[in-house]
Amino acid sequence: MSDELSRGDETRNPAQILVIDDEPFILEYIGAILSSHNIVPILEYTFEKALLQIRSKPVDLVITDLFMPGMGGIEGIKVLKDEFPNIKILAMSAGFSGLPPEDAVEAARKIGADAALIKPLQQDYLEVALADLGYI
After folding, report:
1. Which of 21, 31, 96, 106 could pair covalently with 26 via S-S, beta carbons 3.0-4.6 A apart?
2. pTM of the model
């Protein structure tokens, strides 16, 4: 099975999941969780680099922080939804400059995020969100 995964009775191509966060620990943490489910994640530190990656090789799901240097997740989600309307997006945030994380993730949902999580990220919540989106 070169590029397929066997999951119970079902055999399918592995999901292409790209994770964007400017914090190396978060990238590695999410990457490890995805790897534990036999998903090889694509990890990027900036939305700008992530967009280059997606434009050259489309992905199924983007997991992104909302507040990062350069292009933030809110702007990035708008760009993604304009260019790739069918892409799934899971937004995450710890809030920013007095903006509570609940308000940040609600804003992300309003502009197209399919799911949203509040940081600090907990593995079980991430796994539930990934299951709800159909990736694990």
Report:
1. 21
2. 0.87
**CB neighbours of residue 63 within 10 Å:** 28
- Is a pLDDT exceeding 50 seen at residue 5? no
| Distance between CA atoms of residues 124 and 78, nearest Å | 28
Q: Minimal CA–CA distance to 59: which of 74, 39, 45, 78?
A: 39
Crossing angle for the helix pair 123-132 and 24-35, to the nearest 10 degrees: 60
Name, in order, each residue with C-beta under 8 angstroms of 131's C-beta and a sequence gap of 6 or more. none
Query: Cα–Cα distances in Å, from 105 out to 71, 78, 109, 111?
Result: 17, 14, 6, 10
Res. 67 pLDDT band, cuts 50 70 90: very high
Task: Spell out the domain ranges in the chain.
Answer: 15-132
Q: Are 75 and 107 in contact (CB under 8 A)?
A: no
Tokens of 22: 């400017």
Burial class (CB in 10 A: 0-12, 13-18, 19+), 18: buried
Residue labelled with tokens 């993730």 = 105
Helix (H, G, I), strand (E, B) or coil at 51: helix
Distance CA 9, CA 103 (A): 41
